Amino acid sequence: LDTIFNEAVDIMDKLEENGYQAYFVGGCVRDSLLKRPISDVDIATSAPPDKVQQLFPAVIPVGVMHGTVIVRHLGKSYEVTTFRVDGKYTDKRHPDEVEFIQTIDGDLKRRDFTINALAMNREGRIIDLFNGIDDLHQKVIRTVGKGIERFREDSLRIIRAIRFSSQLGFFIDPATLDDMKVVAPEITQLAVERVRVEITKFFGGRHINLGMDYLRSTELYKHLPVMINYPYIINKLPLKLFPLKDFSEVVVLFHYMEPAIPIKEWVTDWKCSNKEKWNVKELIASIDYFNKNGLDNWLVYCLSSAHIDAFIRLVTNLYSAENIPKRSKVMSIYNSLTIHQRDELKINGHDLIALFPSKKKGPWIHKTLKMVEKQVVLNHVANKNNELKDWVKWNPPGTN
Ligand code: ATP
Ligand code: MG
Question: What positions does the entry give for CTP binding (predicted)?
């Protein structure tokens, strides 16, 4: 067993001691067999959710209706989900009702792909009812059961197929691929929040270019927010993409493919959070500045450590190799900056008011500070109170 499973074995033991079955399931089993880093360990059990809540001291009942309880153990979270079969997905969001069952078989059958329908007990023995291990070896994504039915039940699985392809470098079984094409128009009915999770993972995949081939050939993009209105945008993307991390980076990439589409449309239709909207704004401002001025202290300062990597990922997609600044270069500029944030400036609003006693308080203060900030960052003036005051005297604020 992977060490990551060892930490979770206590949870399995507790369930088994109380007469219930328990298995590791889904992504963690798949990734452990692939020797990939495991993101989270999920457990499936015959214990009903209220029992799970009673058995463990620290639980978060996130989705008791659907059988999921988060168990906190040794500082980590584990999703413990009762064996279940899903009802219909009439609202295309969640199954209307789920039925809890007593055996793992039915629980594995409801899962999307054979490689995701593997279970493992605490000794490391694998349950593989649908030849998932074969498919892992052959690097194939194949639905559990008939694709048409499984995709009609939940069309998010179509997007998940291309995201696993992008993450794992796996091919999609030809029959599954045909069925994806047939059901693809139904993805317009999905909750955008669910779609975004998969699309973000898709663009983050190491094998994004294989994924892109499938995104194109299935014509799935024609049914995604915004792209539904501008399907030609797919042909503007670079032929070779590099992985992105955050959804805001995906928006920024697409923005530069077709700047005529209002950015508002992207962030609204994809239901971006305020944080993401802010990231999008900052990254676009940085890239626009880079286009005009190239890499300088001011750009690196404005990027701040939070956006440096996103910026590099984006320019890597937007420019040819010789024009892409190296991370080491950006970092060395960052480390050489005289100041890293506004409050390190050795002059403040009070100084300015004292320098210009006849001026009424107003936006000029903020504006002047911003100018001084830029001068300091560009090393045009030293960050010393007296020198900054002198600079301001020679460059007095305008009349506004
Ligand atoms: P990741 O490493 O990205 O978390 P994962 O395989 O764990 O990959 P999750 O979205 O966390 O993916 O889902 C956990 C498991 O639940 C999957 O492996 C799969 O067995 C099942 N599953 C998730 N979503 C669906 C779905 N829409 N339809 C059927 N089964 C699903
Ligand atoms: Mg997971």
Answer: 27, 30, 111, 154, 157, 160, 163
